[in-house]
Amino acid sequence: MTLTLTNIAKTFPGGTKALLPTDLEISKGEIVSLLGPSGCGKSTLLRIIAGLETPDAGAKIVFDGEDVTHQSVETRKIGMVFQSYALFPNMSVRGNIGYGLKMQRLPRAEIDSRVNEVIALCRLDAYADRSITALSGGQRQRVALARAMAPRPRVLLLDEPLSALDAALRGQLRDELALLLRQFGITAIFVTHDQDEAMAIADRVAVMSQGEVAQIGTPEVLYRNPATGFVARFVGDAMPLEGRIEADRLHLRGGVLALPKPADGSEVLVRAEDIRIDPEGPVSARVETVTFLGTHYRIALGGLAEGPLFALHTGLSAPKPGEDVRLSIASEALLILPRGLAA
Ligand SMILES: Nc1ncnc2c1ncn2[C@@H]1O[C@H](COP(=O)(O)OP(=O)(O)OP(=O)(O)O)[C@@H](O)[C@H]1O
């Protein structure tokens, strides 16, 4: 299903502008993530698509050429998965998945066949007759997904579906969810505030800030070509380099860096993986802390900015806290961007 959103805005009573006029086009089978900090309006946008919230006048929501702007939640034929799962604890897995189909009064045989189909797809065969209370968080999440998919929705909406899980399980389920959504081939919109999750699951990510889509693109485009300092910070944790810009030179406390182009009035940012500890480097800094993380060391460098700047360092050894080191940053790795509106 293709989803076309035009001029979607939301002003809550009292005047809070949760969402400024937004346009978005999502292709058939595409998975789009709405990514942004708390309060940026992502849930509001999702709830408007679902029909749980009414947009301001002038909005248009079209599902495959059909205007659904004024349709109720039920007639939109969407599937939803929430953080809390909202499963019925006293029912079995099978009972939960079939519940919506029963409400639709589908014939028994049809219900059974659809329930079996999603149980197999979500690899829940071994748990089908268990009660929900006898499942792990990850298994419950798969049941919630299976239940949302059983009525064959036109679009699947997911609101922070992994946020109730612990960190290790989240990582595993993130990849699993990405795979399942693609197997379903369904158009899906996924709300999260976690950049790794958005990048792992979505074909395109819409980065939101203060009620607006700051940038939409593939994870690679957002990472390599962020449009603003805000997007660069949010996707890939770019850090601002505080210094004085004079044409194509950035004067830092510890030295001068060459910029790829004149940057007066812009913001210069860098990512931890692009800072090299290099005895020949043009900038000096002091090592504050060193954290060994297995694949690399994470080094906090002081004396460059107000707060520390982090560098990822690979190799068999690392400098020690208190040592003075020299750094280099390839000029093409520096991000020169308009100052982010929501820094
Ligand atoms: N029912 C409401 N009445 C008034 N203001 C609301 C209502 N719901 C949300 N808001 C406000 O609208 C803005 C956007 O909220 P929304 O829930 O869409 O943000 P979000 O990006 O999903 O945040 P979170 O990640 O914290 O859920 C916030 O400032 C919020 O306080």
From TrEMBL:
<dbReference type="InterPro" id="IPR050093">
    <property type="entry name" value="ABC_SmlMolc_Importer"/>
</dbReference>
<dbReference type="GO" id="GO:0005524">
    <property type="term" value="F:ATP binding"/>
</dbReference>
<dbReference type="InterPro" id="IPR003439">
    <property type="entry name" value="ABC_transporter-like_ATP-bd"/>
</dbReference>
<dbReference type="InterPro" id="IPR008995">
    <property type="entry name" value="Mo/tungstate-bd_C_term_dom"/>
</dbReference>
<dbReference type="InterPro" id="IPR017871">
    <property type="entry name" value="ABC_transporter-like_CS"/>
</dbReference>
<dbReference type="InterPro" id="IPR027417">
    <property type="entry name" value="P-loop_NTPase"/>
</dbReference>
<feature type="domain" description="ABC transporter">
    <location>
        <begin position="3"/>
        <end position="235"/>
    </location>
</feature>
<dbReference type="Pfam" id="PF00005">
    <property type="entry name" value="ABC_tran"/>
</dbReference>
<dbReference type="GO" id="GO:0016887">
    <property type="term" value="F:ATP hydrolysis activity"/>
</dbReference>
<dbReference type="GO" id="GO:0043190">
    <property type="term" value="C:ATP-binding cassette (ABC) transporter complex"/>
</dbReference>
<protein>
    <submittedName>
        <fullName>Putative spermidine/putrescine transport system ATP-binding protein</fullName>
    </submittedName>
</protein>
<comment type="similarity">
    <text>Belongs to the ABC transporter superfamily.</text>
</comment>
<dbReference type="InterPro" id="IPR003593">
    <property type="entry name" value="AAA+_ATPase"/>
</dbReference>
<dbReference type="Pfam" id="PF08402">
    <property type="entry name" value="TOBE_2"/>
</dbReference>
<keyword id="KW-0067">ATP-binding</keyword>
<dbReference type="GO" id="GO:0140359">
    <property type="term" value="F:ABC-type transporter activity"/>
</dbReference>
<dbReference type="InterPro" id="IPR013611">
    <property type="entry name" value="Transp-assoc_OB_typ2"/>
</dbReference>
<keyword id="KW-0547">Nucleotide-binding</keyword>
<keyword id="KW-0813">Transport</keyword>
